[in-house]
Design goal:
The protein has 173 residues and is mainly alpha-helical. The chain has a single domain (28-158), classed as Winged helix-like DNA-binding domain superfamily/Winged helix DNA-binding domain (Arc Repressor Mutant, subunit A, Orthogonal Bundle), CATH 1.10.10. 59% of the residues lie in helices and 10% in strands. It is built from 6 helices and 3 strands; from the N terminus they run H-H-E-H-H-E-E-H-H. The chain has helices spanning 27-51, 58-69, 77-83, 88-100, 122-142, 149-172; strands spanning 74-76, 104-109, 112-120. A 3-stranded antiparallel beta sheet has the order 1-3-2. Helix 1 (27-51) crosses helix 5 and helix 3 (77-83) crosses helix 4 (88-100). 13% of the residues are buried.
Length: 173
C-alpha cells in the first residue's frame, strides 16, 4: 500500500503535547494534503532530473527565469533571494556557481556600495532560450496535460488564495 497518500491514523486519545483541541485533518483533508505533497515532490524531482542534461538544477533554472523576466535582465540580490525563496547566503553560493558557469554576473548598485545586482549574461540568456522550450514541454507533459480546461480553472481558483496567503506571510517575515 502506498502510505504517502493513505489517511493518517488519528490517535484514539490526543497526545498530551498536542492538546485536546488539535485540529486533526479529516480523512479527505489528509488524503488531499498527502496527494499535494507527493505531487509537489515528484514533480520537482522529475523536472530537476530533466534539467540535468543541460547542466542546470531547478534552482538554477528559477534564477534564470527571474533574471530573464526582470528589467534589463538584472535584479538586486536581496530581491532575487525573496523571489526564489532562498536565504541571502544560499543565493550567494548559488550565484557564485552560476557565475563560474558564465550564466550570471554580479554588478554593483549605483548609489549603494553594499548592494549587488545579479545580471543575466549573454550565455545565460542563450541557455534560457535553449532550455525553456524543453522545460515548458515537460511541465505540460507531467502536469498541465493531466487536466482538462475546467480542472485547470478550478485548480487555479483553489490554489490562488493559498498562494496569496503564503505570499502575505512571506512579506511579514
Amino acid at each position: 500500500m502506498d502510505t504517502t497518500t493513505a489517511p493518517a491514523v488519528l490517535p484514539d486519545e490526543p497526545h498530551q503535547d498536542a492538546g485536546e483541541d488539535a485540529p486533526w485533518l479529516t480523512a479527505e483533508e489528509q488524503r488531499l494534503w498527502r496527494a499535494h505533497l507527493e505531487v509537489s515532490r515528484l514533480l520537482m524531482y522529475q523536472l530537476e532530473r530533466e534539467l540535468q542534461p543541460y547542466g542546470l538544477s531547478i534552482n538554477d533554472y528559477t534564477i534564470l527565469v527571474e533574471l530573464s523576466e526582470a528589467p534589463q535582465r538584472r535584479m538586486r540580490m536581496t530581491d532575487l533571494a525573496v523571489a526564489t525563496l532562498q536565504s541571502k547566503s544560499r543565493l550567494s553560493h548559488q550565484v557564485t556557481r552560476m557565475e563560474a558557469a558564465g550564466l550570471v554576473a554580479r554588478d554593483t548598485c549605483p548609489g549603494d556600495r553594499r548592494g549587488l545586482f545579479a545580471v543575466l549574461t549573454e550565455r545565460g540568456w542563450e541557455t534560457m532560450r535553449h532550455v525553456a522550450p524543453h522545460h515548458v514541454r515537460k511541465v505540460r507533459e507531467h502536469f498541465i496535460d493531466r487536466f482538462d480546461e475546467d480542472q485547470i480553472a478550478s485548480m487555479y481558483e483553489a490554489l490562488a488564495p493559498v498562494a496569496e496567503h503564503l505570499r502575505e506571510l512571506r512579506g511579514r517575515g
